[in-house]
Amino acid sequence: xxxxxxxxxxxxxxxxxxxxxxxxxxxxxxxxxxxxxxxxxxxxxxxxxxxxxxxxxxxxxxxxxxxxxxxxxxxxxxxxxxxxxxxxxxxxxxx
Length: 95
Prior knowledge:
Layout: E1 3-6, H1 10-20, E2 25-28, H2 33-37, E3 41-44, E4 53-56, E5 59-63, E6 69-74, H3 82-93
């Protein structure tokens, strides 16, 4: 099963998926619970006013059927699914 989780609203996710041709579900985590649990919610202070903002670091996780994280990829390369596909292919070949 493949799905994405985003900090954005369902409407924003739908528009993004349509724009880039995503064929899997993009789920919204506007309450940030899942993002916090996976440790990818980041905070920053962009100005001198001290206002703090949150954003989700782009990350790909491959999680096996037992719920064990088998692969993590962060940053710009996380957008490209090839590494995750390779990990999944290896997992399906394990006995």
